[in-house]
Structure formats: structure tokens, C-alpha cells
Protein: Lactose permease
Amino acid sequence: MAHVNLRFYNVGWNALAYTYLVEILPYQQRAKEIAVEQLMLRFAVFFNTYVNPIELDWIGWKYYIVYCIWILVEIVTVSSEVGTDQSLTISDMFFPETYGQDTGRALFHV
Structure:
């Protein structure tokens, strides 16, 4: 059953990782941002492959508490940094100057 789940997960993840970035990024920035996304993905894979087993050997089952705290930190960070605004599209929030609708309400200024 896990084998079937993994196949569907990979089909969805592989396509989504690129189509989302292509959707929100202007043409001039796509290659750089996809390279950054792939680099971060490689760092995460390295961490999960080599660091997690060391931590599990070191502190045992308590590592799961550390993991849960880290997930909580991620949730708080994302919910506080990335606000929701129903009147702006994703492109307007991240790249307002590109689309000529700079309202001063952008989430990030690049």
C-alpha cells in the first residue's frame, strides 16, 4: 500500500514543484528561483538522510518532541509572515511592480 501511495505522491509533487513556480514567477526570474528551490530541496533531503539518524541515535525518542516544536515554529512563521488578502492575486502579492498594480500591500519586496 505504501508503494502505491508513494507513486501518487511523486506524480503530484514532481509536477507541482515546477508548475506553481512557473505560475507565480515572471519569465526573467524563473530559472533563478527554480534553482533556489531545487537547492533548498537538496538541503532538506541531505538533512533528512544524514542528520536525522544521528539525532535519533543521540537523543532517541525525544527527537520527535524537537521535531514537533520545529513544525510549530514553521506554522507560526508562515502564518505571521505570509498574510492572506482576498483582493490580491499571488502575482500581485509577490511582484506588484511587474504587473503595474503596486498598492503598497505586497508581502515581499524583491
Q: What stands out?
A: The helical segments are 2-24, 30-59, 63-81, 90-94. The chain has a mean pLDDT of 78. The chain has one domain: 2-94. The chain is about 70% helix and 0% strand.
